[in-house]
Amino acid sequence: MLEHLVPILAGALAAATPLIFAGLGELVTERSGVMNLGVEGMMSVGAIAAFAAASHSGHGATLGLPAGALAGMLTALIFAFFTLSLAANQAACGLALTIFGVGLSAFIGQHYVSYSLPGLAGLNLPLLADIPVLGPIFFRQNAVVYLSLLAFAIVAWVLAKSKLGLMLKAVGESPESAHAIGYPVLAIRYGAVAFGGAMAGIAGAYLSTVYTPLWVQNMSAGRGWISVALVVFATWKPTRLLLGAYLFGGITILQFHAQGLGIAVPVQVLAALPYVATVIVLVAISRDKRLLQLNLPASLGKSFLP
Amino acid sequence: MHLLEPRAQPSRVMRWAAPPLAIVAMLIAGSLLFWALGKNPLGSFKVFFIDPLTSAYGWGELLVKACPLILIAEGLAIGFKARIYNIGAEGQLIMGALFGGGVAIYYNDSTSMWVLPAMVAAGALGGALWGWLPAVLKTNFNAEETLTTLMLNYVAVFILEYMVSGPWRDPDGMNFPQSVMFSDNALFRVLADGSRVNTSIFIALFVVLAFWLFNARSFLAYKLEIGGHAPAASRYAGFSARQTVWFSLIISGLTAGLAGVGEVAGPVGQLNLNISPGYGYAAIIVAYLGRLHAAGIVLAGFLMALIYLGGEAAQVSLQMPAAITGIFQGMLLLFLLGADAFIDNRLRRPA
Amino acid sequence: MNPQQEPRLSLLHITKRYPGVVANSDVSLSVHPGEIRAVLGENGAGKSTLMKIIYGAVKADEGEIMWNGRQVDIANPAQARRLGIGMVFQHFSLFETMSVVENIALVLDEKFDLASLAVRVKEVSERYGLPLDPHRLVHNLSVGERQRVEIVRCLLQKPQLLILDEPTSVLTPQAVRKLFETLRKLASEGISILYISHKLDEIQELCDSATIMRGGKVTGHAVPREETSASLARMMIGRELPVCEAKPYTGEPHTVLEVRGLSLPADNPFGTTLKDISLTVQAGEILGIAGISGNGQAELLMALSGENPVSMDTVLLQGKAIGHLDAGQRRDLGLVFVPEERLGRGAVPPLSLARNALLTGHRLAGMKGWGLVNYSKARNFAKECIQRFDVRCNGPDSAARSLSGGNLQKFIVGREIMLAPKLMIVAQPTWGVDVGAAAFLRQTLLDLSRSGVAILVISEELEELFEISDRIAVLAEGRLSAAKPRQQTDAESVGLQMSGLFDTTTPEASHASA
Question: What is the pTM of this model?
Answer without folding.
Answer: 0.90
